[in-house]
Amino acid sequence: MNKRMFKIVSIVTAMVLAVSGTAFAATGSEYGPGVSGGPGVVGVSGGTGVVTTTTPASATAVVSSQTGIAGSNTAYNGSTSYEAGRVQNDPITGLLPDVHVQFKTGDGNLTGGFTTNMDWFNSPMEGFSGLKIRFENSVGDVFYRAYTEEHGWTKWAMNEMDTEWFNDAAKITAVQMRIKGHTRNLYDFYYRVELNDGTVLDWAHDGQSSGTIGTGRYIQKMQVMLWKHDLPFYQPTANHFVGANYEGIVFDGSGLPHYQTASGAAYTGWAYDTYNNKYYFVDSNPVSDWQYVGGYKYYFDASGKVVTDLEPIMGLPGDYIIKVNKEMKCMTIYTKDGDKGYIIPYKVFLCTIGSSTPEGEFKLYEPHRWKFMHDDIYVQYLMRYKADGFCIHSIIYRPVEGSYNLIASTYNQLGKNYSDGCIRLLSGDAAWLYTNCGADTKLEIYYDYWVMGPFDRPAIEQAIPDTQRYDPTDPVVIADMQNHTGPFASGTYNGEGFETPVPEEMSAEEAAIVGGEATVSTEPSI
Questions:
Q1: Residue 178 and residue 131: Cα distance in Å, rounded?
Q2: Is the bond leading into 399 cis (omega within 30 degrees of zero)?
Q3: Fewer Cβ atoms within 10 A, N terminus or C terminus of the chain?
Q4: CB 526 within 8 A of CB 419
């Protein structure tokens, strides 16, 4: 790959970065672009992550029982009615989003599931000791963790994982649950619990603590609900926790976060606000600027949020290594911190991986701008890392190469679906890698069940309809949008897609944008 190619694609890729945190307005039925940079970027437009929390006066606070969801349309305190706020079919995918929850009882067995818009689910035993949650008909991820007096907070589990299991029947007393991605941008995730003494707590949402710590009680029942984002909730939300102090992030009068523990002890560690922004606290106060944490060097903005795309901060250092967590489908790009080595997490990409994806250390080689894989499948921005067809490349296009022949499902379900062994990225992320990580760049593929990496994996923040034939992060598409060229010549997309044949070689205009020539050869793995 020549220097001119790298330079031109770098310029266009920068366009992707410039718009990646901003949602486009709808263009007909088309949407884009789509992935936030993870917890360092506010995933919800205009969101601040400020939590309004009323801490109970004492550990003996009792909250009156509220009417259950089923059959109740009564608005609380003049807020939005149940019918106006409840979950409805996704306007893009047409599917009805849902959260499916199962308890794991002290004997290690999973209960039957319960979902949003159902009434209370009562554990068949005294309390429960684990959780398993599935995000159904949704674009994005669900995260959850649980507290027991014996073990404290578990690690965060994700997407049908069981929470940590200690095999001692310790009862869960508090939970935190949150969702992330496109469906989160449409809905807030509410949940409430009833304790074993009959105390019914108000609704918590999006990562807030629900339950009790230090009172000798445990959770017996639970309800969950998806509620239209930014609409006032229709039932009480003030008293969702019982303890000497609230456990979680609280914001001071100036909007800065602090971490408060139920015991009142100072806290040092990571935590999330209700918009999935991630902070690191030292003695309960947020850090900012450059900080060494856990062997890595992070950058935190002035409000304390960790920044997961350091290109605007550092420019392009030009010296990178790549690490991919096969289990979590998360790719992290690292750059050097002088003699300390590659300890600066620089970017993070969502990816799809297959069961046959090899673990180990490799080096990138043989880049291809377009690549025919097999049958009628093509990909962009391909780089090999192992013989026998193991590559990194974009999501999938067919029946011929071309930026307007995308298979939309490979975009919406990135990170949830599986490949035949290759590592798939969004076209914009694959273009960045293709441009900035040349031959001999080191790649490590490893397995970690609990820790995604130094950054959390991003989510698809804006779904696209099944009929959309382009990846809104693709630098070719970005350039057409901005310059009103190609299918966007009239200012809106003209519907070009599978029915429009694409020549075997790229047009002169496309070649000028991406700085390369199309290549066609067979690749056995995608």
A1: 13
A2: yes
A3: N
A4: yes
Which pair of tokens denotes residue 43? 């995933």
**Two structure tokens written together for 492:** 């809106």
> DSSP assignment, residue 285?
E
Q: What is the pLDDT of residues 159-186, one digit of tens each?
A: 999 999 999 999 999 999 999 999 999 9
Identify the pLDDT of residue 45. Answer: 26
The whole-number pLDDT of residue 265 equals 97
The phi-psi region of residue 286 (left if phi > 0; otherwise alpha if psi is between -120 and 50; otherwise beta) is: beta
Rounded CA separation 250/520 (Å): 56
* pLDDT band with cut points at 50, 70 and 90 for residue 524: very low
What does the alpha-carbon distance between residue 48 and residue 273 come to, in Å, rounded to a whole number? Answer: 9
| Cβ pair 51, 274 in contact under 8 A | yes
Residue with token string 């309809």: 465
Alpha helices in 327-459 (DSSP H): 409-412, 427-436
Q: Pull the structure tokens for residue 133.
A: 């949650």
DSSP per-residue string spanning 95-121: ---EEEEEEE-TTSPBPPPEETT---E
Helices then strands (H, E): number in the chain?
A: 8, 30
368-403 residue pLDDT tens: 999 998 888 999 999 999 998 899 999 999 998 999
Looking up tokens 């102090």, which residue turns up?
A: 245
Separation of CA 104 from chain center:
25
d(CA 149, CA 137): 35
Each residue of 89-121: pLDDT tens digit?
Answer: 999 999 999 999 999 999 999 999 999 979 999
| Element spanning 296, H or E | strand 296-300
Q: Which helix (H) or strand (E) holds 124?
A: none
Determine the pLDDT at residue 497. Answer: 78
Q: Which two tokens stand for residue 136?
A: 């159904």
Cα within 13 Å of Cα(418), Cβ side? 8
pLDDT number for residue 504: 39
Q: Which residue has the tokens 């994005």?
A: 140
∠ CA 329-333-334, nearest 5°, is: 135
